[in-house]
Amino acid sequence: MDSNKLKVAIITMSDSRASGSGQNDISGQTIRELVEEQHYEVVYYRLIRDDFEEIKATLIEVCNQKIDLVLTTGGTGLSPRDQTPDATKAVLEREVPGISEAMRYFSLQITPRAMFSRGVSGLRGQSLIINLPGSPKAVRENLEYVLPHLRHGLDVLRQEVKECGQQ
Question: What's domain 7-160's architecture?
Answer without folding.
Answer: 3-Layer(aba) Sandwich (3.40)
